[in-house]
User: Fold this.
Amino acid sequence: MLVDTHAHLNFTEDKEGWCRRAKEAEVNKIICVGTSVEASRKCMEISEKYSSDDLQIYATVGIHAQDGKSDVDKFGSVDKCIVELRQILDQVENDNRRVVGVGECGYDIYLEGDTKQVTSATERKFQKELFVAQIRLAQELELPLLIHCRNAWKETFRLLERFQGSTSKSRTLKGLFHSWTGDWEAAKRVLEMGFYISFSGIVTFKNASRVQEVAKKMPSDGMLLETDSPFLTPHPLRGSKNEPKNVKITASFIAQLRNVPVDQLASVTSKNVGRLFGI
Assistant:
């Protein structure tokens, strides 16, 4: 069975269809990822409403770097946004383990030549503040971080290494880099820190040779799979809206790259999910 470790079910009106087609594609777990306070709340509600015996849905609470300004404008400060995330967690009963991570969070930096406006120094500082607050929350709750990293490898590694060095063995920082876009040198550093690498449909793109190199070279016990639905639809379905069932396409592509049976890849990545998230 397959696990989609990163999907945004709150972005679709067709939740029942997504779930039905996921089950048909042998997906038995989906993690619905929060990108704002409101999205985090909706993810938790979706996990409770749409889970079934043959498809378990889990949630994370987090604030994406690009959504942070709106939440801070609404709630007043980064600290107050974290209070809101805590309140969502407080709604979860002690025996309900549906909230399994913090994020997605991290840096979303645009440089000269990118399609969006260049990220200012002020915005970089804000993104760092928001990221640090969520690292601390994950550390305190002993939950995995789901890290978004665009054009900020050095900054991200510096922060993670700083916080890893400040934790006791019982609170070791853990997590994953979602929708991997880095090269092999960056991947080796991630794996040395004990973090996981999650591959989205990007790995199937014709211009994604460095991502494919990582998917081929890296040890299987550090690998996870995701869709980032409704974004990043894998080849050959690009141009259509992505959904969790398509994690099977990504799994098949990586299995072919690594010259292993897709069932073997599905099994090992599912075990990795169990180790990281406890599900």
